[in-house]
Amino acid sequence: EESAEPSDTDQDTTNAHASFPTAGSWQAIWSPQHNTYYFYNSETKETTWVNPLQPATSESEPSSSSTSQSGPSTTIDSHYAALQANAMAQGIDPSLAHLDPSLASSSGVPSNFMYTAKFNARTGAFAKSDSRDPTHLSEYERAKRMSEFYFDVGAWERDVEARNKAEIEAEAEGEGKKRKRPTKKDLERFKEQKRLKKIAKTAWLRT
């Protein structure tokens, strides 16, 4: 008599056709954002990326395989696990957690997953990172573009910056140009020169 229970061969064939097995309270849920399955326990409300139905690997596997699996993937898995936990705490379906930006920010997203983009406010299409922004029409930018038609604005700005830096360094070292105050003799000499100059202008009236 043939047994009603599936044989080991049948089980292997079934597992080969199924993406991930499900049994009891564990459910395999596909995450389109991560392109993989995660597992949710309907009784304990637990979520995990590790297949709880998969038998433990034998200890004969080389240690290099375990080393290769650890690293960046561990950090990513922990982040997504925190994301799923936050979704469950707020009563949100874990498979839709990636659609809520507030969950992504509260779960501690690594900085390398953050990015910024520009888009056209009229068409809604994404723009290049080096495309023009509103500052392109500012008074300074317009004056700079007009001036660049006649001379090198960048070289002039660098020259001014270099001179200012040199003056600051000279003043700090005590070598700056200090204005010399005129003495009493200098003041008397200036007055005499001014008087003689005035007489010379009106000399033709006395001839």
Topology:
Elements lengths: L7 H10 L8 E6 L4 E6 L5 E2 L14 H7 L2 H18 L11 H6 L11 E2 L6 E2 L11 H10 L4 H20 L11 H18 L6
Antiparallel strand pairs: 1-2, 2-3, 4-5
Question: What can you see in these coordinates?
Answer:
Among the domains are: 21-54 and 70-113, Ubiquitin Ligase Nedd4, Chain: W, CATH 2.20.70; 133-176. It contains 7 helices and 5 strands. Strands 1-2-3 form a 3-stranded antiparallel beta sheet, with helices on one face. The protein has a two-stranded antiparallel ribbon with strand order 4-5. A hairpin with a 6-residue loop joins β4 and β5 (126-127). The protein has 207 residues and is mostly helical. It is 43% helix and 9% strand. The chain has helices spanning 8-17, 63-69, 72-89, 101-106, 139-148, 153-172, 184-201, and strands spanning 26-31, 36-41, 47-48, 118-119, 126-127.
Task: Please summarize what this structure is.
With 207 residues, this protein is mainly α. Helices cover 43% and strands 9% of the residues.
The CATH class name of the domain at 21-54 and 70-113 reads Mainly Beta
Can you summarize the main beta sheet? 3 strands, antiparallel
Ends: how far apart?
153 Å
CATH architecture of the domain at 21-54 and 70-113: Single Sheet
Q: How many H/I helical runs? A: 7
Question: Which structural class do you get from the secondary structure elements?
Answer: mainly alpha
Biggest sheet: strand arrangement:
1-2-3
Mean pLDDT: 73
Order of helices and strands: HEEEHHHEEHHH
Percent of residues in beta strands:
5-15%
In which range does the helix fraction lie? 40-55%
Oligomerization state: single chain
Total E-strand runs:
5
Low-confidence stretches: 1-22, 64-68
Q: Shape from CA axes?
A: rod-shaped
Alpha-carbon Rg, integer: 40 Å
CATH level-3 fold name of the domain at 21-54 and 70-113 = Ubiquitin Ligase Nedd4, Chain: W
